[in-house]
Design a protein that fits this description.
The protein is α/β, with parallel strands linked by helices and about 170 residues long. It has one domain: Alpha/beta knot. Helix content is about 40%, strand content about 20%. Helix 1 runs parallel beside helix 5 and helix 3 packs across helix 5. The chain is globular.
Length: about 170
């Protein structure tokens, strides 16, 4: 179990979930907002969406490049995690420990980046400090938003020794 850092009544770190495309399902937004609201007791957290480029039948490469351009400027001076099916997998406990170490190292802003329906451009992955995977399976970005928001909350519950994790 990860211990709560000293003086952690309110940890000073901003965690941004950056997602390509708006959630189309209001239930997804409701669930995501619910976990983000719970997490605000422990740290600042937000969901920011990046415009999803229209998909063409010719090539999705141009759409990915345009989305990457919109993401790259938000990545500057931040610790960046990209969600990708080929990334490293962690248990909830390891993720809590991972977040705790970043907090203790003084990182002020962390972005967790979720690609759109066609994935994420390689240039964004190359700029990432860490590439994580939820599973070798592919999930819709909307579902990934909910899962990431829940896992961030779960990580803080683990750090604070709350029964939620059990």
């Amino acid at each position: 179990m990860v211990g709560c850092p000293e003086g952690c009544d309110r940890i000073i770190m901003l965690i941004n979930i950056l997602s390509v495309g708006l959630p189309k399902d209001k239930h997804v937004q409701y669930l995501t907002d619910g976990y983000l609201e719970r997490t605000k007791k422990y740290t600042s957290v937000s969901l920011k969406t990046i415009k999803q480029e229209p998909l063409t039948s010719n090539s999705n490469t141009e759409a990915l490049r345009k989305e990457a351009k919109n993401l790259v400027h938000l990545m500057e001076d931040c610790y960046n995690i990209v969600m990708d099916k080929d990334g490293d997998m962690m248990s909830s406990e390891l993720f809590a420990n991972f977040l705790n170490k970043r907090i203790m190292s003084g990182i002020k802003v962390m972005n967790i980046i979720i690609g759109g329906p066609t994935g994420i451009d390689v240039s964004v992955k190359q700029r990432a400090d860490k590439v994580l995977s939820l599973s070798p399976m592919t999930f819709p970005h909307e579902l990934t938003m909910v899962i990431i928001a829940e896992q961030i909350y779960r990580a803080f519950a683990i750090m604070h020794g709350l029964p939620y994790h059990k």
